[in-house]
Amino acid sequence: MGFLGSYIRNFASIAIGRQPLKPLLFSYYITHRCDLNCGYCCDGDGKRFKADPIPELSTAQAKELIGILRRAASTLDVTGGEPMLRMDLEEVLSHARGLGFRTVLNTKGIGLEQRPDLLKLADVLVLSLDTLDLSALAGVLGRPTPVAERVLSAMRFAVARRHENGTRVVLSAVATPGNIVGVAGVLRFAVDNGVGFHVSPEIVALREPQGDPERGRRVGTRPNPALRESAQYRQLLDDVLAAKRESRGVFGVRSYLEGIRDFASFPCHPLLMPVIRPDGRMYYPCLESKQAEINLLEAGDYGKALGMARARMGEVPKCRDCCHIFCHMALSLYQRRPLEALGELRHWRN
Predict the structure, then answer these.
(1) What pLDDT score was predicted for residue 214?
(2) What's the angle, vertex CA 97, arms to CA 96 and CA 100, rounded to 5?
(3) I want to staple 32 with a disulfide (CB 3.0 to 4.6 A). Which of 81, 124, 175, 310 is the partner?
(4) 94 CB-contact burial (10 Å; exposed 0-12 / middle 13-18 / buried 19+)
(5) Domain spans, the chain
(6) 8 A C-beta contact, residue 36 and residue 48
(7) Which of 102, 104, 124, 79 is nearest to 287 (CA)?
(8) Mean pLDDT of all residues in the chain?
Protein backbone atom coordinates (compact mmCIF):
# COMPACT_ATOMS: atom_id res chain seq x y z
CA MET A 1 0.00 0.00 0.00
CA GLY A 2 1.22 3.52 -0.77
CA PHE A 3 1.94 6.21 1.79
CA LEU A 4 -1.25 8.19 1.17
CA GLY A 5 -3.48 5.13 1.37
CA SER A 6 -1.88 4.08 4.66
CA TYR A 7 -2.20 7.59 6.05
CA ILE A 8 -5.91 7.76 5.23
CA ARG A 9 -6.65 4.34 6.71
CA ASN A 10 -4.67 5.19 9.83
CA PHE A 11 -6.56 8.44 10.26
CA ALA A 12 -9.84 6.58 9.96
CA SER A 13 -8.69 4.17 12.69
CA ILE A 14 -7.79 7.06 15.00
CA ALA A 15 -11.16 8.69 14.33
CA ILE A 16 -12.96 5.66 15.77
CA GLY A 17 -10.60 5.30 18.71
CA ARG A 18 -8.38 2.53 17.39
CA GLN A 19 -4.60 2.26 17.23
CA PRO A 20 -3.38 2.83 13.63
CA LEU A 21 -1.68 -0.26 12.24
CA LYS A 22 -0.57 0.67 8.72
CA PRO A 23 3.18 1.48 8.60
CA LEU A 24 4.17 4.78 7.03
CA LEU A 25 7.78 3.60 6.98
CA PHE A 26 10.04 0.94 8.45
CA SER A 27 13.18 1.52 10.51
CA TYR A 28 15.76 -1.22 9.96
CA TYR A 29 18.59 -1.31 12.49
CA ILE A 30 21.01 -3.00 10.14
CA THR A 31 23.68 -3.27 12.87
CA HIS A 32 24.15 -2.41 16.52
CA ARG A 33 27.90 -2.02 16.04
CA CYS A 34 29.38 1.44 16.51
CA ASP A 35 32.90 2.78 17.10
CA LEU A 36 31.68 5.90 18.90
CA ASN A 37 30.60 6.42 22.49
CA CYS A 38 27.90 9.12 22.37
CA GLY A 39 26.69 9.97 25.84
CA TYR A 40 23.01 10.17 24.90
CA CYS A 41 22.87 6.87 22.98
CA CYS A 42 20.09 4.81 24.55
CA ASP A 43 18.39 1.64 23.34
CA GLY A 44 15.35 2.30 25.51
CA ASP A 45 16.69 0.25 28.39
CA GLY A 46 19.46 2.53 29.63
CA LYS A 47 22.37 1.19 27.60
CA ARG A 48 24.03 1.98 24.28
CA PHE A 49 23.07 -0.07 21.23
CA LYS A 50 26.61 -1.42 20.87
CA ALA A 51 26.31 -2.86 24.39
CA ASP A 52 23.60 -5.16 23.03
CA PRO A 53 25.32 -7.12 20.23
CA ILE A 54 22.80 -8.85 18.01
CA PRO A 55 23.68 -11.17 15.09
CA GLU A 56 23.26 -9.44 11.74
CA LEU A 57 21.54 -10.68 8.63
CA SER A 58 23.73 -11.56 5.67
CA THR A 59 23.49 -9.45 2.53
CA ALA A 60 21.14 -11.97 0.93
CA GLN A 61 18.98 -12.16 4.05
CA ALA A 62 18.85 -8.37 4.31
CA LYS A 63 17.62 -8.19 0.73
CA GLU A 64 14.97 -10.81 1.48
CA LEU A 65 13.84 -8.80 4.51
CA ILE A 66 13.62 -5.62 2.44
CA GLY A 67 11.45 -7.41 -0.10
CA ILE A 68 9.04 -8.40 2.68
CA LEU A 69 8.92 -4.84 4.03
CA ARG A 70 8.37 -3.30 0.59
CA ARG A 71 5.02 -5.06 0.28
CA ALA A 72 3.78 -3.10 3.31
CA ALA A 73 5.30 0.40 2.94
CA SER A 74 7.21 2.59 0.50
CA THR A 75 9.83 4.24 2.75
CA LEU A 76 12.76 2.50 4.44
CA ASP A 77 14.92 4.07 7.13
CA VAL A 78 18.29 2.32 7.57
CA THR A 79 19.97 3.06 10.87
CA GLY A 80 22.01 1.58 13.71
CA GLY A 81 24.41 1.50 15.58
CA GLU A 82 26.47 2.88 12.75
CA PRO A 83 25.14 1.51 9.45
CA MET A 84 28.29 2.52 7.57
CA LEU A 85 30.13 -0.27 9.39
CA ARG A 86 28.28 -2.58 7.01
CA MET A 87 30.49 -2.82 3.95
CA ASP A 88 27.52 -4.08 1.95
CA LEU A 89 25.44 -0.98 2.72
CA GLU A 90 25.59 0.25 -0.88
CA GLU A 91 24.33 -3.10 -2.15
CA VAL A 92 21.51 -3.18 0.40
CA LEU A 93 20.38 0.38 -0.37
CA SER A 94 20.62 -0.23 -4.11
CA HIS A 95 18.38 -3.27 -3.73
CA ALA A 96 15.87 -1.24 -1.74
CA ARG A 97 15.84 1.49 -4.37
CA GLY A 98 15.40 -1.13 -7.08
CA LEU A 99 12.25 -2.37 -5.34
CA GLY A 100 10.85 1.16 -5.29
CA PHE A 101 11.66 2.12 -1.72
CA ARG A 102 12.31 5.73 -0.82
CA THR A 103 15.48 5.34 1.23
CA VAL A 104 16.56 7.20 4.36
CA LEU A 105 20.05 6.65 5.78
CA ASN A 106 20.80 7.65 9.39
CA THR A 107 24.53 7.92 10.11
CA LYS A 108 27.34 9.95 11.65
CA GLY A 109 28.86 9.87 8.16
CA ILE A 110 32.48 9.04 9.00
CA GLY A 111 34.18 7.98 5.76
CA LEU A 112 31.41 9.26 3.50
CA GLU A 113 33.97 10.95 1.22
CA GLN A 114 35.37 7.50 0.39
CA ARG A 115 31.89 6.05 -0.24
CA PRO A 116 30.16 8.73 -2.36
CA ASP A 117 27.70 6.21 -3.84
CA LEU A 118 25.84 6.35 -0.53
CA LEU A 119 24.78 9.89 -1.44
CA LYS A 120 23.31 8.57 -4.69
CA LEU A 121 21.50 5.72 -2.98
CA ALA A 122 19.91 7.68 -0.13
CA ASP A 123 16.93 9.84 -1.02
CA VAL A 124 17.33 11.38 2.43
CA LEU A 125 20.66 11.43 4.26
CA VAL A 126 20.20 12.10 7.98
CA LEU A 127 23.50 13.10 9.58
CA SER A 128 23.61 13.00 13.36
CA LEU A 129 25.32 16.22 14.42
CA ASP A 130 24.98 17.94 17.79
CA THR A 131 27.50 20.79 17.61
CA LEU A 132 29.91 22.40 15.15
CA ASP A 133 32.49 23.05 17.86
CA LEU A 134 35.28 20.52 17.36
CA SER A 135 36.21 20.10 21.01
CA ALA A 136 32.59 19.92 22.17
CA LEU A 137 31.78 17.40 19.43
CA ALA A 138 34.66 15.19 20.53
CA GLY A 139 33.15 15.24 24.02
CA VAL A 140 29.72 14.25 22.68
CA LEU A 141 31.22 11.40 20.65
CA GLY A 142 33.44 10.25 23.50
CA ARG A 143 36.34 10.16 21.06
CA PRO A 144 39.45 12.28 20.24
CA THR A 145 39.19 15.45 18.14
CA PRO A 146 40.46 13.76 14.91
CA VAL A 147 37.34 11.58 15.00
CA ALA A 148 35.15 14.66 15.50
CA GLU A 149 36.86 16.32 12.54
CA ARG A 150 35.95 13.32 10.37
CA VAL A 151 32.29 13.78 11.33
CA LEU A 152 32.42 17.46 10.37
CA SER A 153 34.31 16.66 7.17
CA ALA A 154 31.65 14.16 6.13
CA MET A 155 28.93 16.72 6.82
CA ARG A 156 30.67 19.36 4.70
CA PHE A 157 31.11 16.82 1.90
CA ALA A 158 27.44 15.85 1.95
CA VAL A 159 26.26 19.47 1.99
CA ALA A 160 28.54 20.37 -0.93
CA ARG A 161 27.54 17.36 -3.05
CA ARG A 162 23.83 17.07 -2.25
CA HIS A 163 22.54 18.78 -5.40
CA GLU A 164 24.46 16.43 -7.71
CA ASN A 165 22.14 13.57 -6.78
CA GLY A 166 19.09 15.39 -5.45
CA THR A 167 19.76 13.99 -1.97
CA ARG A 168 17.94 15.70 0.88
CA VAL A 169 20.47 16.25 3.68
CA VAL A 170 19.06 16.60 7.19
CA LEU A 171 21.08 17.44 10.30
CA SER A 172 19.67 15.60 13.31
CA ALA A 173 20.53 16.96 16.76
CA VAL A 174 19.92 15.74 20.29
CA ALA A 175 19.47 18.48 22.88
CA THR A 176 21.15 17.60 26.17
CA PRO A 177 21.43 19.86 29.23
CA GLY A 178 25.09 20.54 28.40
CA ASN A 179 24.81 20.95 24.64
CA ILE A 180 21.99 23.41 23.98
CA VAL A 181 24.32 26.10 22.59
CA GLY A 182 25.81 23.52 20.22
CA VAL A 183 22.39 22.46 18.91
CA ALA A 184 21.49 26.13 18.33
CA GLY A 185 24.62 26.43 16.20
CA VAL A 186 23.61 23.41 14.11
CA LEU A 187 20.17 24.98 13.60
CA ARG A 188 21.71 28.23 12.35
CA PHE A 189 24.06 26.34 10.01
CA ALA A 190 21.18 24.30 8.57
CA VAL A 191 19.03 27.36 7.92
CA ASP A 192 21.92 29.35 6.42
CA ASN A 193 22.93 26.51 4.10
CA GLY A 194 19.49 25.31 3.06
CA VAL A 195 19.71 21.85 4.56
CA GLY A 196 17.18 20.12 6.77
CA PHE A 197 17.16 20.09 10.56
CA HIS A 198 15.35 18.25 13.28
CA VAL A 199 15.82 17.99 17.02
CA SER A 200 14.90 15.64 19.84
CA PRO A 201 15.47 16.06 23.57
CA GLU A 202 17.79 13.60 25.27
CA ILE A 203 15.80 10.75 26.76
CA VAL A 204 16.82 8.51 29.62
CA ALA A 205 15.45 5.23 30.89
CA LEU A 206 13.83 5.82 34.28
CA ARG A 207 12.62 3.22 36.73
CA GLU A 208 9.84 3.30 39.26
CA PRO A 209 11.33 2.00 42.53
CA GLN A 210 9.78 -1.11 43.99
CA GLY A 211 11.82 -1.73 47.13
CA ASP A 212 15.16 -1.93 45.33
CA PRO A 213 15.56 1.02 42.88
CA GLU A 214 17.89 -1.05 40.69
CA ARG A 215 15.15 -3.63 40.21
CA GLY A 216 12.27 -1.22 39.84
CA ARG A 217 9.81 -1.43 36.99
CA ARG A 218 10.98 0.49 33.92
CA VAL A 219 8.42 3.21 33.22
CA GLY A 220 9.66 4.27 29.84
CA THR A 221 12.12 6.62 28.27
CA ARG A 222 11.58 10.15 29.55
CA PRO A 223 13.24 13.46 28.70
CA ASN A 224 16.29 14.21 30.80
CA PRO A 225 14.78 15.82 33.93
CA ALA A 226 17.32 18.67 33.77
CA LEU A 227 15.77 19.85 30.50
CA ARG A 228 12.42 20.47 32.18
CA GLU A 229 13.97 23.18 34.34
CA SER A 230 16.11 24.75 31.62
CA ALA A 231 15.09 28.18 30.32
CA GLN A 232 17.90 27.81 27.77
CA TYR A 233 16.30 24.65 26.40
CA ARG A 234 12.92 26.36 26.13
CA GLN A 235 14.52 29.26 24.26
CA LEU A 236 16.15 26.80 21.86
CA LEU A 237 12.76 25.35 20.96
CA ASP A 238 11.28 28.83 20.54
CA ASP A 239 14.14 29.54 18.11
CA VAL A 240 13.44 26.30 16.25
CA LEU A 241 9.75 27.23 15.95
CA ALA A 242 10.68 30.70 14.66
CA ALA A 243 13.04 29.16 12.09
CA LYS A 244 10.29 26.81 10.97
CA ARG A 245 7.93 29.72 10.34
CA GLU A 246 10.53 31.77 8.49
CA SER A 247 12.30 29.20 6.32
CA ARG A 248 12.05 25.74 4.86
CA GLY A 249 13.71 22.61 6.13
CA VAL A 250 12.91 22.50 9.85
CA PHE A 251 11.15 19.18 10.34
CA GLY A 252 8.48 18.22 12.85
CA VAL A 253 4.92 19.47 12.90
CA ARG A 254 4.39 22.54 15.07
CA SER A 255 2.59 20.52 17.76
CA TYR A 256 5.68 18.30 18.07
CA LEU A 257 8.07 21.21 18.53
CA GLU A 258 5.75 22.82 21.06
CA GLY A 259 5.28 19.44 22.71
CA ILE A 260 8.99 18.77 23.29
CA ARG A 261 9.35 22.34 24.54
CA ASP A 262 6.52 21.96 27.07
CA PHE A 263 6.90 18.18 27.56
CA ALA A 264 3.24 17.76 26.71
CA SER A 265 1.50 14.41 26.89
CA PHE A 266 0.67 12.78 23.55
CA PRO A 267 -0.91 9.53 22.34
CA CYS A 268 1.84 7.39 20.82
CA HIS A 269 1.30 5.30 17.68
CA PRO A 270 4.47 3.17 17.46
CA LEU A 271 3.33 0.98 14.60
CA LEU A 272 3.49 3.90 12.17
CA MET A 273 7.21 3.08 12.07
CA PRO A 274 7.86 -0.55 13.01
CA VAL A 275 11.44 -1.19 14.10
CA ILE A 276 13.40 -4.21 12.87
CA ARG A 277 16.45 -5.55 14.73
CA PRO A 278 19.72 -6.56 13.00
CA ASP A 279 18.63 -10.22 13.12
CA GLY A 280 15.32 -9.58 11.34
CA ARG A 281 13.15 -9.70 14.45
CA MET A 282 10.46 -7.04 14.82
CA TYR A 283 10.12 -5.09 18.04
CA TYR A 284 6.51 -5.03 19.20
CA PRO A 285 5.02 -2.60 19.74
CA CYS A 286 8.21 -0.52 19.79
CA LEU A 287 11.95 -0.69 20.36
CA GLU A 288 11.55 0.61 23.91
CA SER A 289 9.41 -2.39 24.85
CA LYS A 290 12.41 -4.69 24.15
CA GLN A 291 9.96 -7.38 22.98
CA ALA A 292 11.12 -9.00 19.73
CA GLU A 293 9.68 -12.50 19.45
CA ILE A 294 8.68 -12.51 15.78
CA ASN A 295 11.19 -12.94 12.97
CA LEU A 296 10.01 -11.38 9.73
CA LEU A 297 12.02 -13.77 7.56
CA GLU A 298 10.29 -16.71 9.21
CA ALA A 299 6.87 -15.08 8.99
CA GLY A 300 7.42 -14.09 5.36
CA ASP A 301 4.92 -11.25 5.49
CA TYR A 302 4.64 -8.13 7.65
CA GLY A 303 0.87 -8.41 8.14
CA LYS A 304 1.25 -12.00 9.29
CA ALA A 305 4.12 -11.05 11.61
CA LEU A 306 2.06 -8.24 13.12
CA GLY A 307 -0.87 -10.57 13.69
CA MET A 308 1.40 -13.07 15.44
CA ALA A 309 2.88 -10.34 17.66
CA ARG A 310 -0.54 -9.00 18.64
CA ALA A 311 -1.77 -12.52 19.44
CA ARG A 312 1.23 -13.24 21.66
CA MET A 313 1.78 -9.90 23.34
CA GLY A 314 -1.58 -8.17 23.21
CA GLU A 315 -2.63 -4.80 21.87
CA VAL A 316 -0.52 -1.64 21.90
CA PRO A 317 -0.57 -0.06 25.38
CA LYS A 318 -1.73 3.52 25.77
CA CYS A 319 1.47 5.50 26.37
CA ARG A 320 1.14 9.26 26.72
CA ASP A 321 4.04 10.67 28.74
CA CYS A 322 7.25 9.11 27.45
CA CYS A 323 9.45 8.95 24.35
CA HIS A 324 9.31 12.66 23.48
CA ILE A 325 11.52 12.03 20.45
CA PHE A 326 11.16 12.61 16.75
CA CYS A 327 10.53 9.03 15.65
CA HIS A 328 7.65 8.59 18.11
CA MET A 329 6.13 11.93 19.01
CA ALA A 330 6.65 13.76 15.71
CA LEU A 331 5.34 10.87 13.62
CA SER A 332 2.34 10.26 15.89
CA LEU A 333 1.30 13.91 15.76
CA TYR A 334 1.98 14.00 12.01
CA GLN A 335 -0.57 11.21 11.62
CA ARG A 336 -3.10 12.86 13.94
CA ARG A 337 -2.84 16.40 12.46
CA PRO A 338 -3.44 16.18 8.68
CA LEU A 339 -3.44 19.96 8.13
CA GLU A 340 -0.11 20.31 9.91
CA ALA A 341 1.16 17.28 7.99
CA LEU A 342 0.20 18.95 4.72
CA GLY A 343 2.22 21.98 5.73
CA GLU A 344 5.29 19.77 6.18
CA LEU A 345 5.53 19.22 2.42
CA ARG A 346 7.35 22.49 1.84
CA HIS A 347 10.09 21.45 4.25
CA TRP A 348 10.87 18.34 2.20
CA ARG A 349 11.58 20.26 -0.98
CA ASN A 350 15.26 20.81 -1.74
Answers:
(1) 45
(2) 95
(3) 81
(4) middle
(5) 1-39+48-120+137-159+270-315
(6) no
(7) 79
(8) 93
